[in-house]
């Protein structure tokens, strides 16, 4: 029996076929993981985000427009998750650095003087 195309598997998934989505996940998980591993720079984050991307894809597969490529859509989900992770890590890092360097007290003093 020939393998089904991504488009066929997406249509089946949208009809509620979990096995069809499992086939999509098995097909694209290695590529998504490699992309995330290169982007995030470590295995643990890549594994977490890969799983999260696949869960989001499954939960929102109804939003995938007819004719749109599942691969492209899944990569976009993964990329957005990376951006979110970098943003949240950056804001935590910036806040910690600001407080550690004593700038918080300096800023408060300058605001009170003004």
What does this protein look like?
The chain has 114 residues and is mainly α. It has one domain: Rna Polymerase Sigma Factor, Chain: A (Orthogonal Bundle), CATH 1.10.1740. Helix content is 80%, strand content 0%. The chain is built from five helices and no strands. It has helices at residues 6-14, 18-40, 43-59, 70-100, 103-113. The longest helix is centred in the C-terminal third of the chain and has 31 residues, at 70-100. It starts with 5 loop residues before the first helix and ends with a helix. Mean pLDDT is 84; it is low at 93-101 and 103-111.
Strand content: under 5%
**Low-confidence blocks of residues:** 93-101, 103-111
The CATH superfamily label reads RNA polymerase sigma factor, region 2, helix turn helix motif
C-alpha-based Rg, rounded: 21 Å
Write the CATH fold name.
Rna Polymerase Sigma Factor, Chain: A
In short:
This protein is 80% helix and 0% strand.
Can you give keywords for this protein?
mainly alpha; single chain; 114 residues; Rna Polymerase Sigma Factor, Chain: A
Topology of this structure?
Elements: H1 6-14, H2 18-40, H3 43-59, H4 70-100, H5 103-113
């Amino acid at each position: 029996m020939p393998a089904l195309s991504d488009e066929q598997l997406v249509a089946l998934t949208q009809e509620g076929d979990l096995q069809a989505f499992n086939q999509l996940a098995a097909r694209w998980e290695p590529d998504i993981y490699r992309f995330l591993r290169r982007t995030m720079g470590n295995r643990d984050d890549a594994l977490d985000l890969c799983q999260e991307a696949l869960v989001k894809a499954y939960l929102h597969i109804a939003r995938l427009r007819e004719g749109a490529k599942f691969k492209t859509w899944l990569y976009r989900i993964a990329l957005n998750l990376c951006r979110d992770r970098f943003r949240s890590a950056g804001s935590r890092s910036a806040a910690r650095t600001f407080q550690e360097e004593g700038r918080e007290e300096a800023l408060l003093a300058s605001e009170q003087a003004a």
